[in-house]
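Lab meeting tomorrow. Look over both lines:
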Amino acid sequence: MWNIKSELAYISSNYGFLSETIIKLETPGQKLVKQIELVTTAIEALNSIKGSSVSNSILCKLNSVIAKNDRFEDLKFIATFLNGENSSNDTEKYTINEAVAFKFAPITLVEIERSFSMYKNILRSNRQSFLFDNLSQVFVFYCNQNI
């Protein structure tokens, strides 16, 4: 039977990297290649952890989530294509322009949720008297600021 201190030490030593990885994935404007690299590195690190029933249940959950996300393999394929690692002519799924459009595609919903929050803030009920020129300037400001 483990006590709290040993459980916390186990979690910190084996899963401490996850918080850093999540923060990096939430950073806006990252390239798809970098995001896929972060996720695959985290998956490899999680697969290498042994030693407890906790690690087994975490691996089961991870494999379940990855199995349900059938588009992750597509994103990995596009990332290898963008990184120049995929030299095959297997471009039946995506045209070159479609693959290039994924260069900065976010793989998390954080950026999307931030944009909805920004637009909700801009389009508040007390801002109904905005002229279109002023509204467009506010949109440009919000879209170009560093979050």
